[in-house]
Amino acid sequence: MGLLDGIRVLDLSRVLAGPYAGQLLADMGADVIKIEPPEGDPARGIGPHVDGRSLYFSALNSNKRGIVLDLATGAGQEAFAALLADADILLENLRPAAARRLGLESASLLERRPQLVVVSISGYARDSAWSEVPALDLTAQAETGIMSVTGEPGGAPVRAGVPVGDLAAGMWAAMAALAGTVDRLRTGRGRAIEVPLIDATLTLTSYVATAAAHTGVDPAPVGSGHHSVAPYRAYPASDGWVAIAVIGDRFWPALAAALEIDAAGFDGRDLALNVARHAHREVVDAAVVTALSRLTVEEVCARLAAAGVPHAPVNGMVDALATPYVAERGMVAEVA
User: Fold this and answer.
1) Active site residue 166
2) CATH code, 238
3) CA gap 310, 232 in Å, rounded
4) Do 102 and 72 contact (CB within 8 A), yes or no?
C-alpha cells in the first residue's frame, strides 16, 4: 500500500517540472491521470527515442494512467468535468492566457471543485509584471546566478548537467500538493498554490546567495570544489577521477596517512585546521593530486574507505546506475 493510496491527481502539465511532480506523487502511491491534448505532450518529441518512444517523456511519466482530451471542445470539457469531480490534486503549467481560454484558472477550478488542491507551475509569478514572460530551465539558471558559480575558474558560465531548476520546481510542486492536502484535512477546503520556476530555482542558491547578499561580492566558480572547504573536489587518479570531501578536520590526518602525503611539501605550514587548508588550498590540492597520480581509482577508494574518509569515484551515468548500492535498493527497474 502506497502512502498516497486513494489520492487522485489530474496532471495537465507538460514537458518536465510538472510531470516530474506528478511522477513523484505517483511513486508514492497516488492515482495520477496524465491528461494530454490531441497533439500530445511536447516532451514526446524530445529524444533520445527507442522504438519510437521518447525516453525523456517516459522518464517523467511512469506510474501514470493517460488520457487524451481536447479541452477546446465541449466533449473534452465534459470528460474533464467527470474526472474533476473525483480529483484531489490538479497539476498544471499553462501560460495564464491559455488557462483562461480553457477555463482552467485556479479560481474557476476551485469554484467547480472546492476540495481541490490546485498546484500551478509558472515561469514567473502570475501576479507579477513578468507573468507572460517565458522561462525555461536554462534561463532560470542564468537569471538566478547558478550559472555564474558553475564551471571552472575563469571559464564561461556553465549550465548544470541536469535541469536543476525544473527538477526543483517539480519537487516544490509535489511538496505544495502534499501540504495543500494536509491543510484540506484540517479545513475541509482546497486551495490554489503557485510554484514559479524562477522562485524555485533561486531557493537552490542557499548559503551562496546569503553570503553574496551580506558581502555584496559575487562568488566565483570553483569547479568541483567548495568555496570554504579544502580539500573538497574531484581529483585525478591514474585512470579516472575521485571526489574527496574532507568536510571535518578529523578527516585530514586520515587522508594524509591513507594517501601517504608528504608533509615536507607544506613548508612547515600547520594544516590541521580547515581555515589553514583553505588559505593554502593550492598547496593542499597539489599534494593530493601528486599522491593520487600513482594510484588507480580502485586503489584510492580502497584506501580512503579503510580510513573512513568521505569519497566516491566519479562515475559515468551507466556505471552510476549499476552500483551495488543502487542494486540493493532496487532503484532501477525495467518497465514495459
Assistant:
1) yes
2) 3.30.1540.10
3) 10
4) yes
Burial class for 1, CB neighbours closer than 10 Å (0-12, 13-18, 19+): exposed
Residues contacting residue 145 through CB under 8 Å, at least 6 positions apart: 205, 208, 209, 212, 218
Would you say residue 185 lies in a domain? yes
- Do 123 and 184 form a contact (C-beta atoms < 8 A)? no
> CA-CA distance, 168 to 139, in Å (whole number)?
14
> Can you read off the three cell numbers belonging to residue 290?
601528486
- Domain for residue 220, yes or no? no
Residues 134 and 237 in one domain: no
Among 244, 223, 248, 317, CA closest to 287: 244
Measured from the Cβ of residue 186, the count of other Cβ atoms closer than 10 Å reads: 7
Upper half-sphere CA count for residue 304 (Cβ side, 13 Å): 24
Q: At residue 248, what are phi and psi to the nearest 5 degrees?
A: -130, 150
Taking the CA atoms of residue 159, residue 98, residue 92 and residue 41 in that order, the dihedral angle to the nearest 10 degrees is -70
The span from the CA of 71 to the CA of 35, in Å, is 10
41, 166, 267, 270: the active-site residue: 166
Render pLDDT for 276-319 as a digit per residue (tens, 0 to 9).
999 999 999 999 999 999 999 999 999 999 999 999 999 999 99
* Residue 32, CB-side half-sphere exposure with 13 Å CA sphere: 29
State residue 334 phi and psi, 5-degree precision. -90, 130
Backbone angles phi, psi at 56, to 5 degrees: -60, -50
Q: How far is CA 234 from CA 207, 288, 291, in A?
A: 21, 10, 14
Burial profile 189-214: b = 16 or more Cβ within 10 angstroms, e = fewer = ebbbbbbbbbbbbbebbeebbebbee
Are the beta carbons of 287 and 280 closer than 8 angstroms? Answer: no
277 assigned to some structural domain: yes
3-state secondary structure of 73: coil
Q: Per residue in 1-44, pLDDT tens?
A: 799 999 999 999 999 999 999 999 999 999 999 999 999 999 99
Domain range for 255 is: 232-329
